[in-house]
Design brief:
alpha/beta; Archaeosine Trna-guanine Transglycosylase, Chain: A, domain 4; Rossmann fold; 5 domains; 7-stranded mixed β-sheet; 25 helices; binds adenosine-5'-triphosphate
Length: about 775
């Protein structure tokens, strides 16, 4: 179909050069013009109200008419209204495309000779499809909120003429002026429609991406805000309906609990503040959980909950005796301590510290104290603890923060006056994460612990009702400030007879019950227990004894379960049969006396022990090699011993030259176990004299003593443990410093009877006894 041009178009028409805009046919638009630009529009009256609007090619040029595009738009002047100040508003309506053939007059008004551009818009399947798609695309663009003038909107639905549609849509597109000019110059309506379609597709894509990005952002930012608003709305609705939402229910429940938690006033205030904060936090946020857990902790802590003390000291004595054999002195001191405690509940007295080798009953004494008083019992081990936070907790700012062990355990016990046993205070460590010992000081020091502040709780908790008991294997490694605040109760190792009694009176019965053999009681003969003590254990305490008794009983239980005839009595033969080959031998009797090997006595954290110090010599530069994981102090005493022997060699019948060009090697077996301390001095000297004089050292003479450079023998510690170890190993004579004679009082009579004791002032006396020949 051909578009009919129904206007009466003169051959010559005034022309107005356009700069930044393009006029399209069918476009109704307004221009605000200065007075000097008005003339072509005013002159239009003479030319059927028509004026040609043509874009200048190069806007920077001064010669406007010289450089015009070829195609422009013929427009009808609808109205000219002068503005009050200056210039006028001109309303125009695009009519048709025109081609400028010539400029026939330049001044005072430009006149141009034009020719209408005829557009042929064949309606075809292609054009119809394009029109349909364009319409659909437009709707999509509109759905992204791109506004379209109302009149254009209305028209679009009715226009099926591709030429008109493409021009209308072109107006709608946000295209640069040059691009619009190209569309104006595209005469073929179908071609133009295609171009417009492409531009619109791009535009829709752009809008789509923009929309997606915007949606993503709003989704992210808005989600929590939206949720919060919805929740608030829900709350209001529920309030109006007289219902309670689950969160308000939770908060109300927490409030009730807070009120009933009997916390101190200042803590209550903090908890209340936290609860108010919790109300404002979005429950889906991690912060909510942090706040909630904190409140749960504050509520659960036994601020005022305590167990009533059983203050009957006689009853306490009975319980202690029921649970433990002997330990007279220890029990005496515990009872004194308890007596004071029961009279004055919150004493600022020292803390009990049980020191002794493993398995001597430190922990079980603590348990008994808890049982006599009727208090809860808590036990934590401080061994290897290096992080202060383990005691005092992490600040809540850390993710996953928790209170320290002290508060956690008190919380678990549910009482503010438990017996709190801190094991292995001698093994507490220090590193970059802080010093747990100083945190522990705050816990234990009665001057400070009424307001112990855990980092997590951040509120003080009164620990004065808690009865702390510490345990250690050795006293020396305990940090001095901690030691200061403790009342040390030493538990020494047991003699074989004591072990036998403990086993007979306590351990066997305990294990029978433990292993469900009560219905089929069995009896251990004394010899059987002694065999376990001698052949299967080597220890100061009774832990391994208990373990081996348990092992025998379990094997008996297994036999009963298998239907074998029950054994009425456990004899030494049965023990050997059930426990297998002997595990420990008499180390002293096992070998003969040797040159360069002397028997020493050591005090380790597992009690006393015997050590065989060995020395050998070889050709060399006179070095002293020391092996066997020796500590600094022990190395120094080896050097001192060598100097002493060398300096006094004449006395021992050793020629001076024997030391020339000789390298000496001293080794202390059980090389992987670290050893330290000065008490091996006399043994080192004995070994060296034996080595150089060729006199064998008596294996059954065990010695202990620090030695000065002149040969004086100085006092040592742990004599009882050492003597017990010597006896266990089959030693006949114990040589010890004269200053330790007083320690004999602690040694049981039967042990004293079995061993010969020699208290010496000078190492020469030792040599006299220990060396043969
Ligand atoms: N005098 C005793 N009377 C009765 N039983 C005892 C006695 N001494 C120790 N025991 C028992 O020996 C076992 C080990 O004791 P416990 O666990 O108290 O040792 P410990 O000194 O705490 O050792 P560790 O230093 O290794 O913690 C317990 O079953 C305990 O009851």
């Amino acid at each position: 179909m051909t578009e009919n041009i129904t206007i009466n178009m003169p051959e010559i028409v005034p022309l107005y050069p356009l700069r930044e805009i393009i006029a399209f046919p069918y476009m109704v638009f307004t221009m605000f013009l200065k007075h000097e630009d008005l003339l072509p529009f005013e002159e239009a009256v003479l030319f059927n109200n028509l004026v040609a609007l043509v874009k200048i090619k190069d806007e920077t040029t001064g010669e406007l008419l010289a450089d015009l595009h070829e195609i422009g738009t013929l427009c009808k002047v609808v109205s000219i209204s002068k503005l009050p100040q200056e210039g006028a508003k001109v309303v125009l309506e695009g009519v048709i495309r025109v081609r400028v053939l010539a400029i026939v007059q330049q001044t005072p008004v430009a006149l141009s000779r034009l020719e209408p551009v005829r557009e042929f818009a064949e309606k075809s399947m292609v054009s119809e499809a394009l029109v349909g798609s364009l319409n659909a695309l437009l709707k999509i663009a509109l759905s992204y909120g791109r506004p379209l003038p109302d009149d254009v909107m209305k028209m679009i639905d009715f226009i099926d003429n591709p030429a008109r549609l493409s021009d209308l849509v072109a107006l709608y597109l946000n295209l640069p002026v040059d691009e619009l000019q190209k569309l104006l110059e595209t005469i073929d309506p179908l071609e133009r429609l295609k171009k417009v379609y492409m531009h619109l597709t791009n535009e829709v894509q752009r809008l789509q991406i923009k929309g997606e990005v915007q949606a993503e952002v709003t989704k992210k930012v808005g989600k929590s805000q939206k949720e919060f608003l919805l929740r608030e709305q829900m709350k209001q609705i529920q309030e109006e309906l007289g219902e309670e939402d689950s969160r308000t229910g939770e908060v109300n429940e927490l409030r009730h609990k807070l009120e009933r938690a009997k916390m101190p006033e200042e803590v209550y205030k903090i908890a209340e503040k936290e609860l108010k904060r919790l109300e404002r936090i979005n429950p889906a946020s991690p912060e909510y959980t942090v706040s909630r857990t904190y409140l749960d902790y504050l509520i659960a802590i036994p601020w005022q909950t305590s167990t009533p003390d059983n203050k009957d000291i006689n009853q306490a004595e009975k319980v202690l005796n029921e649970d433990h054999y002997d330990l007279k002195k220890v029990k005496e001191r515990i009872l004194e301590y308890l007596a004071v405690r029961t009279l004055k509940e919150k004493t600022k007295g020292p803390i009990l510290c049980f020191v002794g080798p493993p398995g001597v009953g430190k922990t079980s004494l603590g348990k008994s104290i808890a049982r006599t008083l009727g208090r809860k019992f808590i036990r934590i081990s401080l061994g290897g603890m290096r992080d202060e936070a383990e005691i005092r907790g992490h600040r809540r700012t850390y993710i996953g923060a928790l209170p320290g062990r002290i508060i956690q355990e008190i919380n678990r016990a549910g009482s503010n006056n438990p017996i709190f046993m801190l094991d292995e205070v001698d093994k507490i460590g220090v590193d970059f994460r802080g010093d747990p010992a100083s945190a522990l000081l705050e816990v234990l020091d009665p001057e400070q612990n009424f307001s112990f502040t855990d980092h997590y709780l951040d509120v003080p908790f009164d620990l004065t009702s808690v009865m702390f008991i510490t345990t250690a294997n050795l006293l020396d490694p305990i940090p001095a400030p901690l030691k200061d605040r403790m009342e040390v109760i030493t538990l020494t190792g047991y003699t074989d007879e004591e072990k036998l009694n403990i086993a007979k009176k306590y351990l066997v019965q305990r294990e029978i019950e433990e292993n469900g053999l009560s219905a089929n009681p069995i009896a251990f003969t004394d010899e059987a227990i002694m065999r376990i003590i001698h052949d299967y254990t080597r220890e100061a305490g009774v832990r391994n004894l208990q373990r081996n008794i348990a092992s025998v009983i379990r094997k008996v239980v297994k036999e009963i379960a298998q239907g074998k005839t029950a054994r009425p009595e456990i004899t030494q033969e049965v023990v050997s049969e059930l426990l297998g080959p002997q595990r420990f031998f008499d180390e002293v009797a096992a070998e003969k006396d040797r040159v360069g090997v002397a028997t020493g006595l050591a005090w380790t954290e597992s009690g006393g022990d015997i050590i065989f110090i060995e020395a050998t010599k070889m050709k060399g530069k006179g070095d002293l090699i020391l092996t066997g994981s020796l500590g600094e102090v022990m190395k120094e005493s080896a050097r001192a011993a060598l100097s002493f022997v060398q300096a006094n060699s004449d006395e021992f019948g050793i020629p001076k030259k024997d030391f020339d060009n000789t390298t000496i090697h001293i080794h202390v077996p059980a090389g992987s176990i670290p050893k330290d301390g000065p008490s091996a001095g006399v043994t080192m000297a004995t070994t060296l004299v034996s080595l150089f004089s060729g006199r064998p050292a008596r294996r059954d003479v065990a010695m202990t003593g620090e030695m000065s450079l002149t040969g004086r023998v100085l006092a040592i510690g742990g004599l009882k443990e050492k003597v017990l170890a010597a006896r266990r190993a089959g030693v006949k004579t114990v040589v010890a410093p004269a200053k330790n004679r007083k320690d004999l009082d602690d040694i049981p009579d039967n042990v004293k009877e079995e061993l010969e004791f020699l208290f010496v002032e000078d190492v020469r006396e030792v040599l006299e006894h220990a060396l043969n020949g």
